[in-house]
TrEMBL record:
This is Aryl-phospho-beta-D-glucosidase BglA. NCBIfam families: PRK09589.1, PRK09593.1, PRK09852.1. Pfam families: Glyco_hydro_1. Keywords: Glycosidase, Hydrolase. One of its GO terms (cellular component) is cytosol. PROSITE patterns: GLYCOSYL_HYDROL_F1_1, GLYCOSYL_HYDROL_F1_2. It comes from Clostridium neonatale. The gene is bglA. InterPro entries: GH, GH_1_N_CS, Glyco_hydro_1, Glyco_hydro_1_AS.
Amino acid sequence: MSRLSENFLWGGATAANQFEGGWNKGGKGVSVSDVMTAGAYGVDRQITDGVIEGMNYPNHEAIDFYSRYKEDIELFAEMGFKCFRTSIAWTRIFPNGDETEPNEEGLKFYDDVFDECLKHNIEPVITISHFEMPYHLVKEYGGWRNPKMIEFYLNFCETVYKRYKNKVKYWMTFNEINMIIRKPWKPGGIKFEEGENQLEVKYRAAHYMLVASAKSVVLGKSINPDCTIGTMLLHTTSYAATCNPDNVMAQVKKMHEAYFFTDVQVRGKYPNYQLKFMERNNLNIEITDEDKEILKRGTVDFIGFSYYSSSIEIADPTDEEKSEGNEIKGYKNPLLKSSEWGWQIDPVGLRITLNWLYDRYDIPLFVVENGIGAIDEFEEDGTINDDYRIDYFRKHIEEMKKAVLEDGVDLMGYTPWGCIDLVSAGTGEMKKRYGFIHVDKDNDGNGTLARTRKNSFYWYKKCIESNGEII
């Protein structure tokens, strides 16, 4: 094979909480993202106790896809998208999360969105839960520290699987499921109490999410046997700093942190290294026989993953400079350049990641997030010459194609992150832009929300038209 498959899913990726807006419209409830204020590079976003008047919550309006979805999907169609990866806001369907009956107005909104996509021959690729669980479930039940969350989540899953079974073929159960260990608020609604064993709380929540994911897969297949259901992994691509065996072992342990989740979701059981880790750290994680059975039955069809950067691992670090990338801290690779937000740019790392994942699991892969956050400026003629973004994508797509055409990786598609400018999950900023489409809004919430095609818009259009041949 000398070309990508004609069925290759080119598209773009977003998340409901970061671009929809309409936070209190259509019967929507308050989510964990709705109580996060704006931050900045190096400044954490504040989590408030509910929505407080006068605070800046950038997700509340975001870029108002809620009101402008037809305009935006038309732009995606103009670029030639084959698919559009986004999520369903849990709080649009179940505003508090523990209701028995869904919010019809919220369900109708996604009917309209998916119909609009399908009208333009764009396949929806839907993440069921992407950092927007109901805030009520945090206040009332403690979030994913509580096993009752499985019941609430499955009620949500059953509702959307049934409602959209004729509109959505591709599903992912949780976004970046392994983020629960790194930043447990956004995926899990977890705040720690004084004196409690934080590691145990995080891994207990992880277990509940893994069980919920497996049950969701079984449920989804019972409703629509023809649907395809995957996981979504934040990939921690790390290299050993040197050939020192201790550094190599440090890298192995780093990769275990990510692979634990996909090992369970693809292989259907806890890996031995994780069982030993929990034993060594005296973590009381009750794994019942029923849990083991559902984990075995509810394995995923594909692995979706995010890839932005890489780092290096050092067994005995001293003063090496830290590197960041999508909530991951590692050590800087002196051979790589970094983005304006300190994320190391490593196109070959994408090929390496694709090989690592495919060699380990031998199931289809899907690059569902990849991109570079940058400050974009208008030229005098009103254009945005984001050649740095084009260069980033060109190099990553070149390496992605090598993984498929030279290495034999089975890859379903490629959806760059933030295909239209949206609110940064990490910092809450708007000036950290990823999109092919500029949105007129600044960090303080000012702007008309007007959409403008960047130069990368036209470049990606040609890339898709040529099935990745013209890059």
